[in-house]
C-alpha cells in the first residue's frame, strides 16, 4: 500500500523526476517517520514537505523563521495550486485562515515559531486534522548553529502533544555537531538523518588576502560577465563600494535592510530581471531569491561562518553553468570577529570560536578549498578538485616559524604599541625619524630580516593576527594574544603559503 508520489510530482509540480535525496526524504515522510533532511540551498527542500502535504489527508504545519520568507513560499505554493495560508501577526485574515484550517481546506499552514508557545494555537491544532510538521531552517533550534532562535525550543513541547504526526526538519546549513543537536532537540531518531551531497562542482572557489579591496572586486567584475553579487558587512559599506564600482561601467545596485522597502524591492526585482547587473548587498540579500544565472559571488570581507560562506556562494551558478566565488579577507576581519565573540554570552563562546577557527583554516589552507568545505559538511572528498584557486595554481608552503618569532620579538621589544608598518620597518632596518627618536635602532631585532623573507612579513603579520598570536588595540598597535606564547616558546610552528608568482603586471611594452 505504499503511496506513489511520482504522479503528483508530475501533475502538481510539473517535474519529471525527483532530484538527489528528495525521493528518500519524501518516502520517509509518507511512511510517517521523523526525519532531518540536510540539503544545500537550491536542492529543492520545499518539495519534500509540499508533496507529502498534497498526498496526505490533513494540514501540514510549516514552521518558518521569517515572515518575508513565508510569504514568498506561500506565493510559490499557491501558484502550483496548493491550498496554503500563513498565520502571522502580519496577516489580517487570521480568523478566515483558522476557519479554513478547521474545515480541512488547507494543505499547508505557515507559522512563525513564536506561535507555538501560545495555548490558543495548540488548541487550534488539536481541533483540526494534521498531516505533518515541517520545520524549515531547523538549525535555528541549536545553540551550535549560527542562527540560534530561542523560540524554536518551544516547538518540541508542542510537537510532543501530537506524537503521531510525523516531523520533517529541514536545513541547508548544519555541521556534524549541529545536526546531532537538531535531532536531539526535535526528537528525531539518528537513523532519520538524510544528508544530500553538498558539492557544487561548477563553482570555482578563490580566496585571497585583501590588499586594495575595491580594485580586487573591480577586477572580478571586469573578468566575469553576467549578473553577480558582492557581499559587504555593513550597510554603509555597501553604499560606498557601490559608488566606487559604478566606474566599472556595469549597472550597480545596493541592497540592505536599511533601504526604503520600495527601493529595496525595485533593486531586487531589477537584479532578477537583469543579465549583467552587480548587486552590492549585505547578507540580507539572497534568501528566497530564485535567480539561476548568477555568475559570481564576491565577499568583500569575511563571512560569519563556513556555513554562511557556503550558503552565500551557493547563490552562484544554480543553472549549472560555470560560476566563480571570490572571498577577500583581512586580518582585521578576524580581529573584529574575535572581539564580537568576546561580547556574546559565555556559554556560546566556544562554539563561536570553533566556527571562526574553521574559517581561518579554510582561508589559510594550501590545499583544495572544495575538499575542506565538503569535509566540513561530513563528506569524504578527494584532495584535488581541479576547480579552485589552490588546485589550479598550487601555492608553495614554507616554514615561517622563525620569521614569526622575529616578528613577535619586535612587537615585544618595541613595547607592544606599534602597528604592522612600523614593526616591518624595524625588522628590515628602515630608519625613520620615529625609529631614531625611540632608540629602536639599537634593539637586537633591528634589521634582522632580509632577502625573500621581506615579502613574507606582511602575510606573517596577518597570519599572527588570524591565529590570535597578535591583537590590534584601538589605536592599531599590536599586542600579544594568547597564541603568542606557543610560537615563541611552546614549539608551535607557522607554515605560510607563498602565493604563486603573479604574471608580471603590464607596464606598457609587450615584452614576454
Ligand atoms: P531550497 O529550499 O532547498 O533552497 P527550493 O525548494 O526553493 O530549494 O527549490 C529550488 C528550485 O528547484 C526551485 O526553483 C524548485 O522549483 C526547483 N525544484 C525542486 N525540486 C525539483 C525537481 N525534482 N526537479 C526540478 N526542479 C526542482
Ligand atoms: Zn580544489
UniProtKB/TrEMBL annotation:
Location of the Helicase C-terminal domain: 216-360
Primary enzyme class: isomerase
Domain of life: Bacteria
SMART domains named among the record's database cross-references: DEXDc (SM00487), HELICc (SM00490), HRDC (SM00341), RQC (SM00956)
Alphabetical keyword list: ATP-binding, DNA damage, DNA recombination, DNA repair, DNA-binding, Helicase, Hydrolase, Isomerase, Metal-binding, Nucleotide-binding, Zinc
Positions of the Helicase ATP-binding domain: 26-192
Pfam families according to UniProt: DEAD, Helicase_C, HRDC, RecQ_Zn_bind, RQC
InterPro entries registered for this protein in UniProt: DEAD/DEAH_box_helicase_dom, DNA_helicase_ATP-dep_RecQ, DNA_helicase_ATP-dep_RecQ_bac, Helicase_ATP-bd, Helicase_C-like, HRDC-like_sf, HRDC_dom, HRDC_dom_sf
CDD domains: DEXHc_RecQ
Catalytic function, reaction form: Couples ATP hydrolysis with the unwinding of duplex DNA by translocating in the 3'-5' direction
Name of the featured protein: DNA helicase RecQ
Amino acid at each position: 500500500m505504499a503511496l506513489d508520489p511520482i504522479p503528483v510530482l508530475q501533475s502538481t509540480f510539473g517535474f519529471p523526476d525527483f532530484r538527489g535525496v528528495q525521493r528518500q526524504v519524501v518516502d520517509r515522510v509518507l511512511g510517517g517517520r521523523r526525519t532531518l533532511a540536510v540539503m544545500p540551498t537550491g536542492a529543492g527542500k520545499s518539495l519534500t514537505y509540499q508533496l507529502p502535504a498534497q498526498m496526505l489527508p490533513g494540514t501540514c504545519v510549516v514552521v518558518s523563521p521569517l515572515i518575508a520568507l513565508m510569504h514568498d513560499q506561500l506565493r510559490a505554493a499557491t501558484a502550483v495550486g496548493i491550498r496554503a495560508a500563513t498565520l502571522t501577526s502580519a496577516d489580517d485574515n487570521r480568523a478566515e485562515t483558522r476557519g479554513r484550517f478547521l474545515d480541512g481546506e488547507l494543505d499547508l499552514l505557515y507559522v512563525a515559531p513564536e506561535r507555538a508557545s501560545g495555548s490558543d494555537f495548540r488548541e487550534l491544532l488539536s481541533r483540526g486534522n494534521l498531516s505533518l510538521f515541517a520545520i524549515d531552517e531547523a538549525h535555528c533550534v541549536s545553540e551550535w548553529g549560527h542562527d540560534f532562535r530561542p523560540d524554536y525550543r518551544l516547538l518540541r513541547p508542542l510537537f510532543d502533544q501530537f506524537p503521531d504526526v510525523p516531523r520533517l526538519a529541514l536545513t541547508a546549513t548544519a555541521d556534524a555537531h549541529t545536526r546531532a543537536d537538531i535531532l536531539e532537540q526535535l526528537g528525531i531518531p539518528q537513523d532519520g538523518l538524510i544528508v544530500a551531497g553538498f558539492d557544487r562542482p561548477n563553482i570555482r572557489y578563490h580566496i585571497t588576502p585583501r590588499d586594495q579591496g575595491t580594485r580586487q572586486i573591480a577586477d572580478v567584475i571586469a573578468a566575469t560577465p553576467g549578473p553577480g553579487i558582492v557581499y559587504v558587512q555593513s550597510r554603509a559599506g555597501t553604499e560606498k563600494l557601490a559608488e566606487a564600482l559604478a566606474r566599472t561601467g556595469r549597472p550597480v545596485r545596493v541592497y540592505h535592510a536599511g533601504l526604503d522597502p520600495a527601493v529595496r524591492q525595485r533593486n531586487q526585482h531589477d537584479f532578477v530581471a537583469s543579465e549583467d547587473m552587480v548587486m552590492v548587498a549585505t547578507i540580507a540579500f539572497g534568501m528566497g531569491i530564485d535567480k539561476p544565472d548568477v555568475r559570481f559571488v564576491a565577499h568583500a570581507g569575511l563571512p560569519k561562518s563556513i556555513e554562511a560562506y557556503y550558503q552565500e556562494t551557493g547563490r552562484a551558478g544554480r543553472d549549472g553553468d560555470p560560476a566563480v566565488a571570490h572571498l577577500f579577507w583581512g586580518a582585521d576581519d578576524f580581529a573584529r570577529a574575535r572581539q564580537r565573540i568576546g561580547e556574546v554570552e559565555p556559554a556560546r563562546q566556544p562554539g563561536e570560536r570553533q566556527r571562526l577557527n574553521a574559517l581561518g583554516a579554510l582561508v589559510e589552507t594550501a590545499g583544495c578549498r572544495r575538499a575542506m568545505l565538503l569535509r566540513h559538511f561530513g563528506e569524504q572528498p578527494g584532495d584535488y578538485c581541479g576547480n579552485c584557486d589552490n588546485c589550479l595554481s598550487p601555492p608553495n608552503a614554507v616554514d615561517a616559524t622563525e620569521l614569526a618569532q622575529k616578528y613577535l620579538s619586535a612587537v615585544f621589544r618595541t613595547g607592544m604599541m606599534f602597528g604592522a608598518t612600523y614593526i616591518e620597518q624595524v625588522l628590515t632596518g628602515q630608519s625613520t625619524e620615529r625609529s631614531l627618536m625611540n632608540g629602536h635602532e639599537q634593539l637586537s631585532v633591528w634589521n634582522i630580516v632580509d632577502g625573500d623573507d621581506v615579502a613574507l612579513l606582511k602575510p606573517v603579520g596577518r597570519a599572527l593576527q588570524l591565529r590570535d598570536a597578535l591583537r590590534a588595540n584601538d589605536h592599531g598597535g599590536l599586542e600579544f594574544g594568547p597564541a603568542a606564547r606557543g610560537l615563541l616558546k611552546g614549539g608551535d610552528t607557522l607554515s605560510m603559503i607563498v602565493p604563486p608568482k603573479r604574471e608580471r603586471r603590464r607596464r606598457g611594452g609587450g615584452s614576454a
